């Protein structure tokens, strides 16, 4: 798997992991990452289910765990090198770490919490830096408040302001928005990452949510059972997933299994998909995104509406005894029982060898 990105000779890698491995005592789980990198200022997303090794990678970068093998570098500076027994202490790594829950000093005001992290000497400089970060995150009007007087979202914004106030070389976000409600989460996440990008701070965001990864990341690394299974830009991973598991992981997908016959896979009532590269008799997984099915005003295939999801305009349809999810693009959603006319873009159907 290729590591890093190339856009000229002036690219600076904000983060790089080479041949990194780690194992906890008394467990069989082994983390093994051949290569993992991102350019300075990028938002890198580490995506995977619970227990796959995401938080372990964050702990290794932060210096909370020691490497078994490999090297970790931030902005070209070696933080960990197992072979040379190099391990820069956490407090000297200049790494910002934000967890799921706010971590503030409850006996200090908002301003005092943020100023505590400022490295500049002198009370006036600390105050100026703290207020600057609070203004960026829209929390300067709460400078005199104590944590218990703030909402959970506001507390997390102050936590992030404090992290940024220390002027870190990299920020590690361990699902920091997961405890917020949906609408607030989207807004705060967008605002925070916009500011971090403007400040040109390399950011590693850990999440189990594919939608979040696709929405915010410059680069996504998908991890499964301690290993990176695919990396790339959001569009690349969504449109060209490495396997059927990933295809289904990134949003709802119409999935079924079939066998190649005469170089094709037949979809009942719809048409044939070219599968000549698999060979006749091969078992394949067929993944069809909902957006591969679209509404036609006429001359399409009749489909009966079985279920409607209003929030995301998803419609469950039946075509000649086969059921599919489609992304409805019409101005008015149909009702259950309606017969609509649809077409299938077979060029968007994904095939994977079983």
Please provide a written account of the structure:
By secondary structure, the protein is of the alpha+beta class. It has 2 domains: 13-94 and 168-248, P-loop containing nucleotide triphosphate hydrolases (Rossmann fold, 3-Layer(aba) Sandwich); 252-353, no CATH class. The protein has helices at residues 54-62, 110-115, 123-136, 152-165, 182-198, 210-216, 234-239, 244-249; strands spanning 13-23, 30-39, 43-47, 69-74, 77-81, 86-87, 95-98, 170-174, 202-207, 219-224, 227-232, 254-259, 264-267, 271-274, 283-288, 293-295, 301-309, 314-319, 322-327, 339-344, 349-353. The strands form 5 sheets. Strands 7-8-9-3-10-11 form a 6-stranded mixed beta sheet, sandwiched between helices. A hairpin with a 2-residue loop joins β4 and β5. The protein is globular and about 75 Å long. The two termini are 22 Å apart. Residues 5-9 have low confidence and may be disordered. One of its GO terms (biological process) is quaternary ammonium group transport. InterPro entries: AAA+_ATPase, ABC_SmlMolc_Importer, ABC_transporter-like_ATP-bd, ABC_transporter-like_CS, ABC_transpr_FbpC, Mo/tungstate-bd_C_term_dom, P-loop_NTPase. GO terms for molecular function: ABC-type ferric iron transporter activity; ATP binding; ATP hydrolysis activity.
